[in-house]
Structures are given as structure tokens and as C-alpha cells.
Design a protein that fits this description.
Layout: E1 14-15, H1 21-25, E2 30-33, E3 35-38, E4 43-44, E5 61-65, H2 68-79, H3 84-98, H4 100-103, E6 108-115, E7 120-126, H5 142-153, H6 158-171, E8 173-174, H7 177-186, H8 194-200, E9 213-214, H9 217-229, H10 233-236, H11 238-249, H12 256-260, E10 265-268, E11 270-274, E12 277-281, H13 285-297, H14 312-323, E13 337-344, E14 349-355, E15 389-393, E16 398-406, H15 409-423, H16 429-434, E17 438-439, E18 447-450, H17 455-460, E19 468-471, E20 476-482, E21 490-494, E22 501-503
Parallel strand pairs: 18-19
Antiparallel strand pairs: 1-4, 2-3, 5-13, 5-22, 6-7, 6-14, 7-10, 8-9, 11-12, 12-15, 13-14, 15-16, 16-20, 17-18, 20-21
Helix pairs in contact: 2-3, 3-5, 3-6, 6-9, 13-14, 13-15
């Protein structure tokens, strides 16, 4: 069942196909945005109405994420006339409730943004901040980051983007398979205090299974304040004082000025060209790693646009050469990062990566706010983040590709490998994401490979990597691809290695 129907009241209506299973599945869905709005699932306006779900006809763009509910909410936002920034904001706040192992309000992240109107590729970075006095608990960046994204590029009212997450936390939601499996995969790295255990563990200590309904009333109260008073309220109002107090009770050394002074950073995206297309990525070391891998194996097809051959025997050495300088990073990741991508009918796109450094961050939850608290980590500690990526045709103002990944260092190669499958070897988006991967953290180190890798590829790498180990998965990628930059050609895919979702309405 879909969670919301209308974002704002609608007076002009028309009757649609009331026999549609999708319409009946949404019948009488309601949610709170100041006051309750109740509408039937078979009514929309004669024309597109901003804020009314399903009032937008035809292609919407696309959404893909590691957690399914976030995709459903983001698609509703697009179908209500919202843009890519709106959809990304709503997806994030939904994941703060449904996928807090990596997307808690206490964490940080980064987005790469393409705005079609000014033909600009930008990054907005909002990492976990370091308090002036130190301490083990960091300053949250996600709330201010997505508030800044919405303030610059959003179209729908702020409250309508936070309200779905608020409702999920308040009235309860079922643990998704994505969240459950992420906790299982974290294994010994999963730390929980008694408040997290109350939500996610049974009395016998076992993890609650997917489908178990949970409520997060304290978190809902925070989201209510954020929805009604804006994202900045968390950093400077009474809520800020409450958060600081609970952080310090848990061993932190935070002051209200740490929240007040926190700012996300807008920059022109790091970029490089191949043929007529431009790749936009992070300005951080994760973007540098991605560019070095890409350009060491592919600089473009050239004038003849001939399909290229990019076997793993070329990609793995490129990644090994880059990541030999990150020997302490986790090749697989620990479930502490996640990605999502959105694109809209106007040709705008957003690709984001958010994380907690470690699964559930410090493993502690605020007593008052219900927020999982993120740690302050030294460079090289925690999970290596994967840069979001956008690919556009700037001369024509066309968006082509949005992708993000997770899974430690291997996630970076997964993103590059998937993108090159589309642009270098002319595979479909699905085939590119499904292709079996291999990876190594450096020359002489073990070769990690997935089932399905051709034995001849493993043999070709055996001299540089004499030990080969088969693993279940290497990275997890989400992507939206609009062939030739045309909206009717858009496709979206979530990686088969995870339990996310992708949706496009045609």
C-alpha cells in the first residue's frame, strides 16, 4: 500500500480509472501535514496540480535507492510535480526512518546535483562535523544538507517532503528486508545500546525479522519539528539544546555553537570529459579515486564511436593501483553507507551518498531525539565512501546518467564498472549492473571475485594476484539512465546485490 495520496489540498478534480488495482491499493491513504488531508484515490485535477500525486502524466524521470519505501515516496513526489531535489530530499528523510543503519539523521553525506536551467554540475557536501572540543560523537550534517539542497533547488513545500517520514516514525512501519539484511551483514561490527536494541532486537537477543512493525515516537517528534519549523531549527532552537545534552550524556563533548556554526558546502563538481559528455563527481578523495580508475581504462570512443572492450583484466589493475594507498579501508564496506539517485521530467538530477561511518554510527541512540549518533572518525577510519556520479551533455543541456554506490572501496569500482558498461561497451543498464565484478585492494593482494566471472579473467590476473577468493557481492549500485538524454528513454535500476527498488512511470 502506498503511504500518501495528496501533498496539498485539491479542489479541482476529475475521475480516473477507479478499477485500477494500483488506485484501489491507495484508497483512503492519509497523512498529517499540520491537519489531516483525506482524499479518494480516484481523483485528480483536469490539469497538472503541484502537490497532487498522480497529477503528472507521462514519463517522470526515475528513482533508485537501497531501501524500497524511499523509492515509493520519491516517485510520489515526482508524480505530484516535484523535481529531482524534492524527490531526493523526501527519499532521504524516509530512509532516516526506514534505513537508519546508514541514513540516520545523525550522519552526513554528499550529493552531486545537475540543474538543467543553468547547466551546472555542483556538489553539496555535508559531512559529519567535528565538535570544537572533540569527543567521540559528531555533528549531524544530513538535516542541514538536504535543507540546503531544497532551499536552492526544491519546488514543493518543505513540509510535504518530511511529512511521509514523520508519519512512518509515528504510526509505525515494518522493518524492510534491506534494513534487516544490512544488520545481518554488519555482523560483529553491529553495535547497539539498549535503546537501539529495544527497537531492533527481540528479548532473546536475536534481530527482529523483516516485516516486524516498529514505532519510533521520539524520532517522529524530531521530524515534526523539522517539518513544521524547517531544517535550520534543529541547529539553533530548543531542539539543538536537547540534542547537545543527550550527546554529552553519551560521552560526547558538543556545544550548541557546534550546531549553530555547522554549514554545508556548495562547490562546482569535480568533472572530466569523454567524447561530448561530462562526468561530475565528488571533490573528495572518493571522487579522485573514481576519476583515476575511469581515465586509466577509458577516455572516450572517439569520432567513430566504436564499441570498446573493457575486461576485468583491465579494470582490476586500475583499481588496485588506486586503492593500494587505502590499505586500511574495508574493501566490502560494513553497511554504514547508502546511495540513492533521482531524475525528473525537466532534465534535473541528483545523486547522493550518505553514511554513518560505521553501522548505526556509535551504536548509541539519543534518549530524547531517538537519533542514532554518528562517530567522529580519523581519516581512513570507517567505511570508504563512494562518490555519487552524474553524466550530462553540457552543449545540449541533456542529462544522461545518475549513479551512486556503497560497499566500501569495491563500491567505487562497481560504480565505474557499471557506468562504463553503458557508455564504453554499449550494454543495457540492467546488463551493466548485473555483470559479475572482481576487485583487489592492491598489487599482490587477493583477487576478490563474484560468481559468474569468466575463469579466463581470473587466470589473466593470477600473476599480479596469485590468491583468488570468491565472495558473495562487491559493491551495490543504483542508477538512472536516459539514453541520448531523452526523457522517454529513461530507465532506472537498483542493484540485484541488494534489496532496494527502482521505479519509473511512463
Amino acid at each position: 500500500m502506498r503511504l500518501i495520496k495528496n501533498l496539498t489540498p485539491s479542489l479541482s478534480r476529475k475521475v480516473r480509472n477507479c478499477g485500477s488495482p494500483r488506485q484501489w491499493s491507495r484508497l483512503a491513504a492519509t497523512f498529517a501535514v499540520g491537519t489531516l488531508l483525506a482524499v479518494t484515490a480516484c481523483e485528480t485535477s483536469e490539469q497538472e496540480q503541484l502537490g497532487v500525486i498522480d497529477s503528472v502524466e507521462g514519463p517522470l524521470g526515475g528513482v533508485a535507492a537501497d531501501e524500497p519505501r524511499a523509492v515509493l515516496i520519491a516517485q510520489d513526489i515526482l508524480s505530484a510535480g516535484g523535481n529531482a531535489a524534492d524527490a531526493a530530499t523526501a527519499a532521504y528523510f524516509t530512509m532516516s526512518v526506514t534505513y537508519p543503519i546508514a541514513a540516520s539523521l545523525g550522519g552526513g553525506g554528499e550529493c552531486v546535483v545537475y540543474n538543467n536551467a543553468d547547466n551546472a554540475l555542483q556538489t553539496i557536501s555535508f559531512p559529519i562535523g567535528r565538535p570544537e572540543e572533540g569527543g567521540e560523537i559528531g555533528v549531524p550534517g544530513n538535516i542541514r544538507g538536504f535543507a540546503a539542497l531544497h532551499a536552492r533547488y526544491g519546488k514543493l513545500p518543505w513540509g510535504s517532503l518530511v511529512a511521509p517520514a514523520e508519519k512512518l516514525a509515528n504510526f509505525g512501519e515494518s522493518i524492510s528486508r534491506a534494513q534487516h539484511v544490512a544488520m545481518l551483514n554488519a555482523g560483529r561490527n553491529l553495535r547497539m545500546d539498549d535503546r537501539l536494541e529495544e527497537i531492533y532486537r527481540n528479548e532473546d537477543g536475536s534481530l527482529k525479522v523483516e516485516g516486524t512493525r516498529i514505532e519510533q515516537i521520539r524520532l517522529s517528534s524530531v521530524l515534526t519539528n523539522i517539518r513544521s519549523k524547517g531544517g535550520a531549527f534543529f541547529y539553533g532552537g530548543a531542539l539543538a539544546r536537547s540534542f547537545v545534552e543527550e550527546v554529552n550524556l553519551e560521552g560526547g563533548r558538543m556545544a550548541t555553537r557546534d550546531l549553530i556554526n555547522y554549514r554545508p558546502v556548495w562547490q562546482e563538481a569535480r568533472s572530466f570529459d569523454f567524447d561530448v559528455l561530462t562526468v561530475g563527481i565528488s571533490n573528495g578523495p572518493q571522487g579522485d579515486a573514481m576519476q583515476r580508475i575511469w581515465q586509466s581504462v577509458f577516455t572516450g570512443k572517439g569520432f567513430l564511436q566504436l564499441e570498446q572492450d573493457l575486461p576485468l583484466s583491465k579494470l582490476v589493475p586500475a583499481a588496485a593501483d588506486v586503492f593500494k594507498g587505502y590499505a586500511n579501508s574495508n574493501a566490502f564496506g560494513q553497511g554504514a553507507n547508502t546511495s540513492f539517485v533521482t531524475a525528473d521530467k525537466e532534465g534535473n538530477a541528483v545523486a547522493c551518498s550518505v553514511g554513518m561511518g560505521k553501522p548505526f554510527g556509535t551504536g548509541k541512540m539519543g534518549r530524547v531525539t531517538g537519533i542514532a549518533l554518528a562517530p567522529v572518525l580519523a581519516p581512513g577510519e570507517g567505511e570508504f565512501p563512494t562518490s555519487p556520479m552524474l553524466i550530462v551533455n553540457k552543449p545540449n543541456n541533456d542529462f544522461y546518467f545518475a549513479t551512486g554506490g556503497s560497499g566500501g572501496a569495491a563500491g567505487t569500482l562497481g560504480v565505474v564498472y557499471s557506468a562504463l558498461g553503458v557508455f564504453a561497451t554499449d550494454q543495457s543498464l540492467e546488463a551493466s549492473l548485473n555483470a559479475s565484478r572482481a576487485f583487489s585492494m592492491g598489487p599482490g593482494l587477493p583477487l576478490l571475485f563474484e560468481q559468474g566471472v569468466n575463469p579466463s579473467e581470473i587466470q589473466a590476473l593470477s600473476t599480479a594476484h596469485p590468491v583468488a577468493v570468491e565472495v558473495q557481492r562487491l559493491g551495490q549500485v543504483n542508477a538512472v539512465y536516459c539514453a541520448l538524454g531523452k526523457l522517454p528513454n529513461c530507465q532506472s535500476r537498483a542493484d540485484r546485490r541488494g534489496y532496494g527498488l527502482s521505479m519509473i512511470q511512463r
